[in-house]
Design goal:
alpha/beta, Rossmann fold, six-stranded parallel sheet, transferase, CDP-glycerol glycerophosphotransferase activity, TagF_C, Teichoic_Acid_Biosynth
Length: about 350
């Protein structure tokens, strides 16, 4: 099975890496597509990759795994949507753009919705596999325990507080919590790690870098692997970000500010204040533990570390049964959009 791992944004690297490892184990040929603008950020420089659409055409793939929203309709291969987050309330998560033949869902909450959409549009299939990005939860849950111990020792702290907000200008809490983090930093028992999305506003990035420079127990993290920080953190602070759900699956407390989620099963503040009190109460009392377990069952019940394996195996089974599509049928306007993004 010849496979394309399709990357338009850096967040795709960590989602597709577990699939690459499965392809290696099975000795299947694969090729990464990495946009020129993000090539320098690509962490697997020794792996086969290209930014050339002609090279992708010549590769004649059987399957294309895509965490993003678009993929060229004219490429050979089963076009598989594998998603880049767990936030079902985000605008566009359930939007059918007609670029994909198969949707591989993370859990029952998503599967149920996409099956209804399948009945409506009748031009794609839906299978539940779990999400490759979270395979590490099942395989290497304690991978960064030593790093965490070293950090706590270095900063003479007892707990790690992770701040990971959304970048969306209308939803981010970043502009409103600087004073709250100053107050929190006065408590030396907390090591505060700031982890921003690649698309966060430049001025906010600079503000938080300055904040970190002035407070010894605030660290602005630039490493892209957010999973590392999710595994190390004792509590997370966020807003309307899909990373909230990734953290909830670790069964650790979350505090959000003005989240627009329709299924809030954690401590959500409606005003930008009292951060210190909220951190202390959630670490001591953890009143949302049972509710978090409900989220896990609905959003991602797989903790065996084998979602990437299921993705590869169901895709192979699908093309074995149905054949490999030479291209995807699209409306004229959808084709024009693809031509603008990727060329013809």
């Amino acid at each position: 099975m010849k496979t394309i791992l399709f990357c338009q944004n850096p967040y795709a690297f960590g989602i597709l890496e577990p699939i690459m490892e499965v392809l290696k184990e099975k000795q299947f040929a694969y090729l990464w597509f990495v946009r020129k603008s993000i090539q320098k950020q690509f962490p697997f420089q020794n792996e086969p990759f290209t930014s050339d659409m002609e090279e992708l055409k010549e590769f004649k793939s059987d399957v294309i795994f895509v965490p993003g929203n678009e993929v060229p309709y004219y490429l050979r291969g089963l076009k598989v949507q594998i998603f880049h987050g767990l936030a079902g309330e985000k605008k566009g998560h359930f939007r059918i753009r007609h670029y994909f033949d198969l949707y591989l869902t993370q859990g029952p909450y998503f599967t149920e919705r996409f099956l209804k959409l399948k009945q409506q549009f009748k031009n794609f299939d839906v299978l539940e596999t779990g999400w490759s990005k979270l395979d590490i939860y099942g395989k290497e849950l304690h991978k960064y325990d030593t790093v965490k111990k070293q950090l706590l020792l270095k900063y003479k702290a007892k707990k790690i507080v992770l701040y990971a907000p959304t970048f969306s200008p209308s939803l981010t809490s970043a502009a409103f919590l600087i004073e709250e983090f100053k107050k929190l930093s006065k408590q030396n028992e907390y090591l505060i790690l700031i982890k921003f999305h690649d698309l966060m506003a430049v001025e906010l990035i600079e503000e938080y870098k300055q904040l970190a420079a002035l407070h010894k127990n605030i660290v602005f993290e630039e490493e892209r692997n957010i999973i590392k920080f999710l595994l190390m953190a004792d509590i997370m602070i966020s807003d309307t970000s899909s990373v909230v759900y990734e953290f909830l699956l670790l069964n650790k407390p979350v505090i959000t500010f003005k989240s627009n989620s329709k299924n809030i099963q954690w401590d959500n503040a409606v005003e930008y204040n009292d951060l210190l009190q909220k951190v202390e109460s959630n670490l001591k009392e953890d009143n949302f533990k049972e509710k978090r377990l409900n989220i896990a069952q609905q959003y991602h019940p797989y903790n065996d570390g084998k979602s990437a394996l299921r993705m590869v195996e169901v895709s192979l089974k699908y093309i074995t049964k149905n054949g490999v599509p030479e291209k995807r049928k699209l409306s004229f306007l959808r084709k024009v959009k693809i031509h603008k993004i990727f060329g013809k």
